[in-house]
Amino acid sequence: MHLIEKQNLKNYNTFGMEVVTKSFLQVDSAEEVPYIIENYLQRHPYYLLGGGSNTLFTKDFDGIIVHPAFSGIGLVGQRGGEAVVRVAAGEQWDNLVQYCIRREYYGLENLTGIPGLVGSAPVQNIGAYGVELKDTLLKVEGYRISTGEAFELTRDECQFGYRNSIFKQKLKNDCFITYVWFRLSCIRHFTMTYQGLSKVLEERELPLTLRNVSECVRTIRDTKLPNPAVVGNGGSFFKNPVVTAERYEALVSAFPDLVAYDAPDGKKKLSAGQLIEKAGWKGRRVGNAGTWENQALVLVNYGGATPDEVLHVADSIVDDVNRLFNIVLEMEINRI
To answer: Active site residue: 23, 132, 141, 163, which one?
Structure first.
């Protein structure tokens, strides 16, 4: 482990916010976690920070930022058309996706290009282009911070929902995830429910392969989302709102081109990006913050933006969308 005092976090959050933490603790192995919990996390305010791609720091942090830096992907076994892999929390998510593609393990290819670390993925139940983490997750290993006890949670026990899990609810801020297990298919199959993905494949006249699907997903992401290394951002800032079928029918009567997808219990999931665009915020800039020109759902730091500037844009979007649609958008990112 490495402990640094007064660490600037600009390079540890993709928004590029200039904030400072009182202490920054880098965890270099899973074996260190029990000691770190007992001697640091149970005694001081803390925040577990992965790749910083889903976090907006709004001020300096008066505590310990804990960052898992241990990585590795291990094949547990392969039989019966399935492969099980165990992945360290500090592994880059896209490294895992590419590992699976090289070995022809099916299931994660639609999640190509998502920034962040594997240990953070179950917290958010990350998803894109018709696929969610829960579709392939087997179990999660880690330690309860309040007790220091080790735990293993199966997929069902993680209580996954849309961008949600037990780690954001009952066990919020009380779990140090060390390893995530995935059950992947060795049998050829794809999830092509996202029409734009099929369209790109057809336009490029590419055969349906893991590599081609992955590259087409990356192409779509690159056209919609800014590179955080160039323009600071946290990806999708708001969740897509879910409404009842009756509420959707009322909305579509006023807005006939409203995009919606089927959701559980007969509900409809709306496109937050479309709602924001219709509210006049696509590509709009206020000071050094605003929304991305190709995707209104992405709030960006155009350079030198303060947390207050980003929050002003976010609050203004929420107000305008609510005024137009009577829908209150919910932040997808973590506000610290």
So the answer is: 163
